Every structure is written in C-alpha cells, then in structure tokens.
Amino acid sequence: MLNNIGLPGLLLIAVVVLVLFGRGKISSLMGEVGKGITAFKKGVSDGSKEIEDKTAEEAKDVTPESEKDKV
C-alpha cells in the first residue's frame, strides 16, 4: 500500500501536515526530537563506558605471589 507513494504524494502529505500543525509547532517538535536523539546517544555512550570500566576492574592480575617473581 505504501509502496506507491511517490514524490508528489510525499509533498502533499508534507503540505497537509504543515497546514494542520503550523510551522512553529513542527519546528518545536523537531527540536524536541533532536534533543531526544542526543540524550539517547549520550546514554548509549555512557552505558558502554560503564561496561568497559566494569570489565577493566574485573581483569585484575590474579597471578599468585610466588609466580610474580619469576620472569
């Protein structure tokens, strides 16, 4: 059903949305979407950093003291 929407159909939909909501409302909505995307990316990077820190703490040297002197 949606495979038949071409450029004229998309333009018509854009015009209808613009008329219904107005330029200001769409602009503020897109700003909020941008802030949401930025917050999501920050959360993902913070989560991966936390996982890396946790694995680095777990990767401690477990060599017995008697074996550390041998090189």
TrEMBL record:
InterPro entries: TatA/B/E, TatA/E. The chain crosses the membrane at residues 6-22. It is found in: Cell membrane. It is a single-pass membrane protein. It comes from the Bacteria. Residues 43-71 are annotated as: Disordered. Keywords: Cell membrane, Membrane, Protein transport, Translocation, Transmembrane, Transmembrane helix, Transport. Belongs to the TatA/E family. PANTHER family: SEC-INDEPENDENT PROTEIN TRANSLOCASE PROTEIN TATA. Part of the twin-arginine translocation (Tat) system that transports large folded proteins containing a characteristic twin-arginine motif in their signal peptide across membranes. TatA could form the protein-conducting channel of the Tat system. The Tat system comprises two distinct complexes: a TatABC complex, containing multiple copies of TatA, TatB and TatC subunits, and a separate TatA complex, containing only TatA subunits. Substrates initially bind to the TatABC complex, which probably triggers association of the separate TatA complex to form the active translocon. This is Sec-independent protein translocase protein TatA. It comes from Thalassovita aquimarina. The lineage of its organism: Bacteria, Pseudomonadati, Pseudomonadota, Alphaproteobacteria, Rhodobacterales.
